Amino acid sequence: MRSIAAFVIAAVLWSFNLFGQSSQDQKTPDKDADKKQAAASALAGKKDQRKSSKDEKKEEPKKEEEKKPGMNADTFAGLKFRSIGPGAESGRVMSIAVNPKKTSEFYVGVASGGVWKTVNDGTTWTPLFDGEGSYSTGWVALDPNDPSVVWVGAGESNSQRSVAYGDGIYRSDDGGKSWKNLGLKKSEHIGRVVIDPRDSKVVYVAAAGPLWGPGGDRGLYKTTDGGKNWKAVLTISENTGVNDVAMDPSNPDILYASAYQRRRHVFTFIDGGPESAIYKSTDAGVTWNKVTSGLPSVDMGRIGMAISPADPNVVYASVEAADGKGGIFRSSDKGANWERRNEFDAGAMYYGRIVPDPKERGAA
User: Do 277 and 338 contact (CB within 8 A), yes or no?
Assistant: First the structure.
């Protein structure tokens, strides 16, 4: 009996021990799950915190980039290119013709840049000669009776190696909008155009002629029908043309013309000779006399002519001459006698032109 009772008690105790162990095993996974859940929650919290921090950073306004000192793209952001006309005129300005009735309107003839016009004192410019046969301009003149009539002598009158030549005389009757070539196409270099204020159809053209060879339209030409026909009223030789002509404002029949002997070759330049001289006419070019009193007796080169508007008895000449005999000469008796006023003839081949003061006698 005692052995049976002991066996029963042992069985009961073993059952309790087994049950307890089973209960403990069942409780352990729950604790692990709780730990895992707590860890997951903590990790999620950290992620949310990081995300929140990133969102806060995104929401923060970006700081403006510090501008570096000196020039950058913003420095030139407001600048725009615009045309200002013949800012680079491709050579020398040969002639300026101002409308006496509206001085804010004038024309500029460029040695190798055509003819330009402004109507607002040079603020803006319009090219007028782009469609014509020559881009080189020797002279621009306005009809004193109608400034909308414009005469252009094509081909600059200088004689350097890079000189550009022209193709004659042009006229516009509408202020430069359209042009007509009126001949003298073989003149190549025109020094001046003058118009008789009594009759706009009477025009004189000083043609120096070809630089690199003889012949051509060379000398002083005159038209009495507005350019339909031309007559050579002063011819020197096949090597010497007329570089300049001046008309007496008190008597348009009195003319002064300068003959210029020159020839350019690849190897040399003949600048002047015995045929360079000053001629005077008192009958509108029908007859001519050479004036010499007081002028250099040596060979002369280019000669520029001008008459004082304040006193037409005063005539100026810029003379290029050999042996240092050139300079600025003046006559006080309409060219009968001359006196040398100074020795300046530097650059006479280029700048052989004088502009007298329109009001003051003796100033130029």
Answer: no
- Hey, CA dihedral for 29, 31, 34, 36, is it positive or negative? negative
| Pairwise CA distance, residues 170 & 164, whole Å | 17
Coil/strand/helix, residue 110: strand
- In degrees, rounded to 5, the angle at the alpha carbon of residue 189 between the alpha carbons of residues 223 and 345 is 115
How many Cβ atoms are within 10 Å of 169's Cβ, its own excluded? 29
* Per-residue model confidence (pLDDT) at position 45: 53
Cβ count near 159 (within 10 Å): 22
Rounded CA-CA distance 137/176 in Å is 14
pLDDT tens digits, one per residue of 175-195: 999 999 999 999 999 999 999
pLDDT at site 36: 52
Single-letter code of the amino acid located at 177: K
321 with 301: CB under 8 angstroms? yes
Q: Residue 195 corresponds to which amino acid?
A: I
**Distance (Å, rounded) from C-alpha 98 to C-alpha 274?**
36
Distance separating alpha carbons of residues 216 and 187, to the nearest angstrom:
6
DSSP states along 250-284? T-TT-EEEEEEEEEE-SS-EEE-BTT-EEEEESST
For the chain, domains (ranges, CATH) are 93-351 (2.130.10.10)
- Angle (CA) 88-85-137 rounded to 5° is 70
